[in-house]
Amino acid sequence: MIKADSTGNPVHLKAEWIKAAGKPDDVCPLFTKSFSVDGAVKSATLNITALGVYEALINEKRVGEFFMAPGWTAYQKRLQVQSYDVTKLLKAGENTLSVTVGKGWYSSPMPGWTGPDNDKTERINRENGFIAELVLEFEDGTKKTVPTDGSWRWQESRVRFSELYDGETYDASFEAKEKHSVACFDGPNETLILQEGEEIREIERLPVKKIIRTPKGETVIDFGQEISGYVEFTLNAKKGDGIEILHGEMLDKHGNFYNENYRAAKAVLRYTCKDGLQTYKPHLTFYGFRYIKLASYPCKPEAEQFTAIAVSSVQKQTGFIKTGHKGINQLISNILWSQKDNFVDVPTDCPQRDERLGWLGDAQVFIKAAALNYDVERFFKKWFRDMRAEQRKDGSLGSIVPDYLPNSSPSAGWSDAAVICPWVIYQAYGNREMLSEQFESMKKWVDYITSVTTEKYLWEGGKHYGDWLGLDAKEGSYRGASRDGFLAGAYYYYSTSLLIKAGKALGRNMDEYIALKNNIYKKFNSVYKEYKTQTEYTVALYFGLTPDAGKTAKELADRVIKDGVQLKTGFIGTPYILHALTDNGYAGLSYDLLLREEYPSWLFPIKMGATTVWEHWDGIKENGDFWSADMNSFNHYAYGAVIDWIYEKAAGITHSESAPGYEKAIIEPHPDRRLGYVDVTLETRNGKITSRWEYIGDNIKYEISADMPVTVIINEKKRELSPGKYTF
To answer: Is the pTM of this model over 0.70?
Structure first.
């Protein structure tokens, strides 16, 4: 288990950064150091980090369970150090510490879809290295330190190549013939911090669902579930036998292996066998996949030879939902899997193609759902600190964190994550210290908008993603029909509103921002007197911008009905539309949208066999054709934000903003016969909450329990109740 730190304070290792001088470009170096243990060891601690990713072993036994350590941070300003208790790995006499280092996020060609530029070229050319100190404390009170220094040696490892997008090549038959001197170098000693985030760990092992012989004659293995992780295989083979495995999310409509949507990411696993029985899984990379294609395999594949291993930073599930609707239950499973698959140290958009970036827009619309599904407080605390590190001097923020698009313009709904995300996490867990830590960053973001807008009290100018992938987009466009100025002004108002709430929660004087908020409201409504899209109606309602919520809600409902009771929204509108309707008396219409099975809908991908959330509602069309190979992820969690509506509206579990962390619960269910029943349990910092309703004939039975005081609202009747269990 890694020792964790919550302060963000720097740490200093009494060691030197070392690298493999003169190594072949692709081979991952294996660094080794022998040392003796001449007395009874009381404790032994290995402090280690890398520019790249590492795998450490003591006496051939793996140190810790952290996969892809040290994780991904804003490397120029923050690099996590892991501290492992390795006492039990030592033995009397001679011992060996060995460390293999790979590219990881540090020197991979990210983002893959862009052409070479100075920043990307610099990243590709970064040299990998590491720093470590092994501190031994003996029973007699003496200490011994084994640091990285010029006395270490390196040799070529069996990991012949390992890279984030392209995969790993491993030669089990390779034996290094010689060891080489290491080179010491000036590494980032001043930016080292103790581990802050969650570890990336193996979380689940999946057996083979079936082995397929495709129409093209390919051998494809289906694990039945899309994951982030890798395949482990065991076989008997001869030295020199070769294995090549390709990874994919889907089969095409003919049943053949398909991974064109990975774009430039090769996602290949290559393995050269040794003699005899052997087991292998990748060491320094991971893949996003459901299917693997055995491009070459030395024997007849048997199901028991293969296991898919899922990895994630998500450790503890806190939200549990069951309903009487099979499709909704599958949707819930898909959302949970997409969160696990994309929460690999950073909240990414997708885990498979040549991207895998921490897009702020995706994160901010999903963060409430994320905190309901799993305990993500520590996960986001580390990411927020990276967000602060990447925030520019003028208060602006790009579109991703860590920022691998350093020249990207701030965008409404993306960069507003600087305010929205910390507020949501505060509401989820009630951590004032965490909110306080982010407050200046939140304020700087709002001040930035104020400083750059070309129209006072609106946000005019700049470039925005708009309602990304909105279904009302013009042919050939990725951006919905909602007006940029409308959405930007709405987010200006929303971020200012949340900043005020955060300031009040922290006891700050917010008079200046209250005046700003009021002026934005007046100016916005003087300019935007009518709404033109589903998303514009939705945002005006959800953000509290419309002066007549009843009228706006009716117009939104009428618009949805006119549109065929189907969504026309994109990344901005979709997460909020069911809330906007339900909060204003149209819960039945919300259910109509949720339960729709035809394209576009949450259930259409379910009908098409999805096991995770798709980037496009029609990633696979009704006729089996793919939407595109260009930008078509089948593991994109943003639209999975709908699950927070199931918690908060269907089951009705919420709390007031003055009771963060669910100090006091509010339960106001919105039942619908079409679901049959809803059973939701939420584990919070202040105890457990359960809300269940079920249709029994023409009646509805409610069962509610809470470990904290609770306000229950059923059929507009409010009850103030003590902790306990209740039936209505």
So the answer is: yes
